[in-house]
Amino acid sequence: MLLNSRWLVLAWMMIAQFALGDGVFEKPQAIDRTAQLIRQLDQLQTLSASFIQTTVNGQQHVVQQARGQLWVSTPGRFRLETLEPAIQTLVSDGETFWSFDSDLEQVIITRLQRDITQVPILLLGGDAKAITAEYQVAYFSEDQHDFFVLEPREGGSLFESLTIVFAADTPVSIVLRDSLGQRTQIELTDVNRNHQIPSATFTLIPPVGADVIDDR
What we know:
Layout: H1 5-8, H2 34-42, E1 46-56, E2 62-73, E3 77-84, E4 88-92, E5 96-101, E6 106-111, H3 131-134, E7 135-142, E8 145-152, E9 161-167, E10 170-177, E11 183-193, E12 211-214
């Protein structure tokens, strides 16, 4: 999940049940709105926000909670900093991916995997048109929010469904469900769209003394 580097890139960082309950994915009026989702995502050149991530298991028990900050910029650049309960930083400049764990004092460097089924945060800063090839998209609207429910067309994804929720044109929540019934919800607050973010945000210089593992 978000504290696991593969999931944190989730996903984006990174989101619902979003106060609607389990039925959110079974709306009978859901219709295909792939083109609408692409238009809304294409309008996002940059995004920054605070996030709270909560993961619950199939019995609806909270198994993990974290909070932090995220920054996203096209094409495929992002930075996620988890501040609680542990400090972890995930960064990509669109080509290279850095993962820093402060408890381990370790930085792992790899090539960015540009696959939105494996790195869902790329939905907010990558190639939105790739959605049509990778996902089936359903849509419904409720309580002045737009819900886009994405299901991977093929196996091998980290999740069974991903729901991205917009208030007007601003993403406010993302929810991911896996095959074990576990649900991870990422709520975004203090969201800023399309403002300038320094390029240095999307690189990571390993802290002095950190163990660096370069797997590029």
